[in-house]
Amino acid sequence: CNSYNIIDTTATTVITLSSRVGTTIKNCNLSGNNAGTGISLTSSSKNLIDNVTIKNRNTALYMAAGSNFNNITNSDFSNNNNTATNQGVIWLNCGSGVNDVCKANNFTNLNLSNALTYAMYLSYADNMTLDHTNNFYNVTHGIALRTSHYNLLKNINLNGTGYGTGMNIYASSYNILFNISVRNRENPLHLQFGSNYNNITDNDFSNANNTIENQGAVWFNCGVLATENCRYNNFTHNNMSNAPTYGLYLSYVDNLTVDGTNSFKNVSGGVAILQGSNNIIKNLDLNGSGTGT
Q1: Cα gap 121→125, rounded to integer Å
Q2: Do 237 and 200 contact (CB within 8 A), yes or no?
């Protein structure tokens, strides 16, 4: 773009890549008028999006149908206006087929601040790393993984102002959530239906704002069917302190160990288990101040 502005205020997509490989989109301003999509990639791989500004759109970046190994970096996707709860400022809407899953895309040094919905909504997206170089300041919701596996989320600040979900993990397995700060959220972590073998460690889920009795600062909300149970997740060195309801609420969860490496200081309720089996709860300090469970 050579630093030119491409101005399109309508509800359209400004730049579309379909079945393209090796394209560079660089030094562009694709901002809009609270409508449309900045960049769309479908079945497109090994492309570079660098130093692109996409503000005041519904969706900054949309990816679908087997778009792999793309590098999205050094870009400003802030102040976008999408309010749909199943979309995001960055929206990977990939598919379940062998050639439809989006794999190994790189997202670094991105500004996703002030998102009105999820900053990143990743559906059928595997083998990605998301880290502290991305800015999630003042987003309504942080990151959603939907049927997405083998991803590494680390060293991220998803703190809020008392509302919204920090991370939503749905039917997603073999992911690592490490050293993520999700303070002052209504739901710091919501893990759902058939999410297995995830490693959740060294995270700060404190000062949650959820007052619903059958939820918690960390809420495993899994299903009654065998394929919907959540199994064999690792949960260590996490901070659930100051929760106004349960620190940890487990629904249809099997084969989980919760031990003394986790902090439940000053929580109204400690740990709840609804319909679970083969779980180990050991060496916890759930002392209170005379109220709560």
Answers
A1: 10
A2: no
